[in-house]
Amino acid sequence: MxxxxxxxxxxxxxxxxxxxxxxxxKVEEIEAAPPSEIAPEIAATLEAKGYRISEEGGGxxxxxxxxxxxxxxxxxxxAKGAIQFPFLAQGELLGAARLLDEAGDYRDQVIEKGxxxxxxxxLPVNGDHLGVSPFRDYALLLPADKDxxxxxxxxxxxxxxxxxxxxTSHPAIFSMLAAPADAKVSMSxxxxxxxxxxxxxxxxxxxxxxxxxxxxxxxxxxxxxxxA
Length: 228
Fold this sequence. Notes:
Layout: E1 25-30, H1 40-43, E2 50-55, E3 60-66, E4 70-71, E5 93-99, E6 103-104, E7 110-111, E8 114-122, E9 137-143, H2 155-166, E10 172-178, E11 186-190, E12 195-205, E13 213-222
Parallel strand pairs: 4-12
Antiparallel strand pairs: 1-2, 2-3, 3-5, 5-8, 6-7, 8-9, 9-10, 10-13, 11-12, 12-13
């Protein structure tokens, strides 16, 4: 996997014009309210704390805020076919992000610095996406000034608004993968694919459960797929 000339983030980290493996990245918890650019209806659903991704020895690259309680249809019980998170509705709000510089997504599309919401989506089943990934799960970025309601978005609106984040005819996407149940908030490097992932804890609101349960996920925030 090669590296983009753009500095990648976000979901959501940035890369220099050298190889990804020549650098190292870290993630830390921050006590900071979500950005003021986020609509009040969405900001009210987000945690008061966030997570900051930075380059070791450098400055911060991106900040992420997760939703306090993400509606889930059932307890996680593993993947169903090519879908790792069948308990999530396509278009569901997951959180928000602030990119602190120009970034790039899993398709190597340039994403301008700014504030975005993060929603769950599925890769379409068609010939255009063969070989991209064995799984269909993705996190999509949407411009915060367009996405102002926490309700689930239709697939068309989800994709149309995410295209605006990328400024192209394709949504701005980041690969979303399952993480071990005991995964801590951390960055990890896949040397074979030359990609960096961040492990973050989603909080799932499951019918019958008194409190949201923790379910770690991994987002590829630095690196991209040539087939995406």
